[in-house]
Specification:
The chain is of the alpha+beta class. The chain has one domain. It is built from seven helices and nine strands. The strands form three sheets. Strands 4-1-7-5 form a four-stranded antiparallel beta sheet, with helices on both faces. A three-stranded antiparallel beta sheet has the order 3-2-6, with no helix packed on it. Helix 2 packs parallel to helix 6. It is elongated.
Length: 304
């Protein structure tokens, strides 16, 4: 009888280990979700990242054009209301960093209680715990110049024209990310930031706004988790009676957009423009703060 019970215990342990090795947290996570679709040779995760960046670019381009182009309907509506006539220097730059992070985890908590020994009141309890987690971070950083964003590309601009029908429309990219599905309110923020700058000017205020820097940070975190706790009770063996779930799994997606508006400097060798030292330092400081925050959050493993 004891030999049979030991075989049963070994079978339970083997089954638990087999389940855990098939769970998430033991391989590099996919960026895309089940609803995301591949595009040509690009897998679903890559297509999602491309569409997120394109959606952000289109919203940014629309916001810059809206607050700087007198013929734009939004610009004229604000002008008629007597509100601030917004402006951005053509040589200013916008650096944005897109961070897409996925955390996956699996936890395993098998337990068993064996009875039927001599004396009859004796019971042997067995329990174990195992967990694994995996993190993937994809980061993209781009720099755009205000003058380039203000350029009217006509019907070649995929942000405002359907490339198949050639009809004007605002582009909405496909994809599951909330950076696509949600209004990022870039225009509302930019118009308000320019209004604040005009109302409360810095001491070193001048036409080129050399000492001004604006930053905007948007983050979405979506957490899903689940547990499974099959239990059975035989004559001499009872499993998973401790209250802890046998198997737990979780997936957290963190999608963040960080934008910094500021003056640029021209590289004397290449002639290309980069953000000024002050603006670059501000952007870097925000990136470091974001990284620290995400790492602290990653210490809490969903599903456990």
């Amino acid at each position: 009888m004891k030999a049979k019970m030991m075989k049963l215990v070994r079978a339970i342990v083997f089954l638990a280990v087999t389940i855990s090795t098939g769970g998430c947290g033991l391989y590099v996570p996919h960026q895309g979700e089940i609803v995301d679709q591949p595009e040509g040779l690009m897998e679903a995760g890559g297509a999602l990242e491309k569409n997120v960046k394109l959606q952000i670019y289109c919203e940014l381009k629309y916001a810059v054009m809206a607050v700087t182009t007198p013929g734009n309907p939004y610009y004229m509506a604000q002008f008629r209301k007597g509100l601030y006539n917004a402006s951005l220097p053509d040589d200013w730059g916008i650096e944005f960093t897109l961070t897409l992070q996925v955390d996956e985890s699996t936890s395993l908590n098998p337990s068993a209680a064996l009875s039927g020994f001599s004396p009859p009141s004796f019971t042997l309890g067995l329990a174990g715990t195992a967990s694994s987690s995996a993190t993937r971070i994809d980061k993209f950083t781009s720099l755009y110049i205000v003058k380039d964003l203000r350029t009217d590309l006509g019907k070649t601009d995929q942000c405002f024209y359907d490339q198949k029908t050639r009809e004007r429309r605002n582009y909405v990219a496909p994809g599951s990310s909330l950076l696509i599905r949600s209004d990022l309110r870039i225009l509302d923020w930019l118009y308000g930031a320019l209004h604040v700058e005009d109302t409360y000017k810095s001491e070193a205020d001048d036409p080129s706004k050399k000492d001004d820097i604006y930053s905007y940070d948007v983050k979405f975190a979506v957490v899903t988790s689940g547990t499974a706790n099959p239990a059975w009770k035989l004559l001499r063996v009872a499993t998973n009676q401790s209250g802890a779930a046998l198997l737990g799994a979780g997936r957290t997606r963190t999608h963040e957009l960080l934008m910094t508006f500021g003056p640029t400097e021209k590289d004397p060798k290449s002639g290309k423009r980069t953000l000024s030292t002050a603006a670059s330092n501000s952007h870097l400081a925000s990136e470091i703060g974001t990284a620290v925050s995400n790492n602290i959050r990653g210490l809490v493993i969903p599903g456990q």
